[in-house]
Amino acid sequence: MKSFSRADRVVEQIRRELAELLHSEVKDPRIGMITLTAVEISPDYAHAKVFFTTMLGAERVPEILVGLKKASGFLRREIGRRVRIHTTPELHFVYDDSIDRGANLSKLIDEAVAVTRESEARDGAHNDEGQG
């Protein structure tokens, strides 16, 4: 079994606490429903990148970021109270577009498969006509 480093445990705790705070304490309507996908922390613990996704669509990301930036002081203060670390990191929120990229890739694959099937069906029909 892989053992987790202290940094791994800290980032997971930060992610959990932030998710809880955003769900229960932050009432900014700009933020809406977001999911925290990952947290990366600098070696000196001074900065944390907090990655998030939203079901509201990429076009809403700028206003979500405004809301998160406005809430970041409160969130940082609460993280300082809840997580035992010597330095409370400054929070930097980053939109995680991997789900969008995955959905687009999946759509492209589906389209390519459909085109291939249509082409094979046409080719099969032409080949059947020549036989007989």
Automatic annotation (TrEMBL):
Pfam families: RBFA. HAMAP family: RbfA. The keyword Cytoplasm applies. One of several proteins that assist in the late maturation steps of the functional core of the 30S ribosomal subunit. Associates with free 30S ribosomal subunits (but not with 30S subunits that are part of 70S ribosomes or polysomes). Required for efficient processing of 16S rRNA. May interact with the 5'-terminal helix region of 16S rRNA. Monomer. Binds 30S ribosomal subunits, but not 50S ribosomal subunits or 70S ribosomes. One of its GO terms (cellular component) is cytosol. Belongs to the RbfA family. The keyword Cytoplasm applies. It is found in: Cytoplasm. Keywords: Cytoplasm, Ribosome biogenesis. One of its GO terms (molecular function) is ribosomal small subunit binding. This is Ribosome-binding factor A. It comes from Oryzomicrobium terrae. One of its GO terms (biological process) is maturation of SSU-rRNA. Gene3D superfamilies: 3.30.300.20. It comes from the Bacteria.
